[in-house]
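Sharing a chain and its predicted structure for anyone who wants a worked example. Both blocks are below, sequence first, tokens second.
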Amino acid sequence: MFKGVRPILYGGREVWPLIEGGKGVSATNHASSGAWAAAGGIGTVSAVNADSYDPDGKIIPQVYSALTRRERHEELIAYAIDGAVEQVKRAFEIAGGRGAININVLWEMGGAQRILHGVLERTRGMVAGVTCGAGMPYKLSEIAASYGVSYLPIVSSGRAFSALWKRAYSKAAEWLAGVVYEDPWLAGGHNGLSNAEDPKVPQDPYPRVKALRDTMRSGGISDDVPIIMAGGVWYLRDWNDWIDNPELGQIVFQFGTRPLLTQESPIPQQWKNHLTTLEPGDILLHRFSPTGFYSSAVRNPFLRNLEARSERQVAFSMEAAGDHQYQLDVGVKGKNFWVTLGDLHRAREWYGLGYTNALKTPDNTLVFVTTDEMKVIRKDQADCMGCLSQCAFSSWADTEGNSTGRLADPRSFCIQKTLQDIAHDGPIDENLMFAGHAAYKFKQDPFYSNGFVPTVKQLVDRILTGD
């Protein structure tokens, strides 16, 4: 047992201070989270469009048959509630009374509050806590408390937690079971980088977590309420100075990337295989997500294509002004697009390479794509089912008018489509593959040598040694 690692009290029982990160859209399910809880930790079922099963145990494909986005949105919510309930029930059974089961939701997912109510209503007594990030989930505490369930907000700064605490959480303080600090430069998936922070200049998490603890203390929150360190966590021995550190109070560790490579992990084999080939720098912190958040994923052909698409971009004016004195004569219909001479030459070059369609963005620019790319973009935008509260790619908004009021952005992509596809054996080169920035350690860590893939129990036991 690694120095200082001892059980904590959570949900009325002793558990290891190790949490499985809840990775949305089927990258974490009942098999992985149930096994994590059975090993004595806190397993996390993703309640983000989780899988349901037919009577034969086969996954039910999430097919949308309604004609309008609003009606497809209702189908999405029904799928989401049914899937998460099914996953929680199965995970709870696998856990067998050991450890604890949390669920994870994204506050910015479409219908988040309705889904949370629907899942908690049908899983009473099974869910110990709700982790929630991607946005400012002010109503999280109120919803969780109404079902007698703990809540664990995910933040990336003390300032964000302070706003949540003052406005809402102080009213349900007894149900706050922990605060997840998710390192915005190291964690996989969507990250909470603010506009004041430089994505290219990572900050040391220690002073940021110390500032979060100071904020919690100023709100009267006990040091026994843990801060959960998430993002970049691999070996506990790397965090030796954090354990039993009076400056930081109780610290718990969340593992998002490492549990991807276990026997119980639901991700397809080709995804698991690819993880063992990654090198430092193969994870890209990017801003192509339709959520508007930064996010981290494997820099595969899918992401490289989005990078290249954004590079094939020119600014335009609707009339001749300043340097924009040249009418664009490729990729567009009409004569209302005025560009610089340099951009005119670049646009003609792209056109000659087959990027013959210029699509408008919300920022008065044009991106050049092939005809096939344009067809995919248009179809994906038309098929939108409102999986986010606001989507830059389709202009959907979870509001009365169901529109962001902005032009749909062709530089982004349908995140629901790609995450569902990669989780269900779609090609790993053509889809978004989330991973944390420490994923290169799969290749370096001797634990995984000779192609060894541990069970969740073997992984938890290994983590508890410090390795």
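Comments welcome. The CA atoms of residues 51 and 285 lie 28 Å apart.
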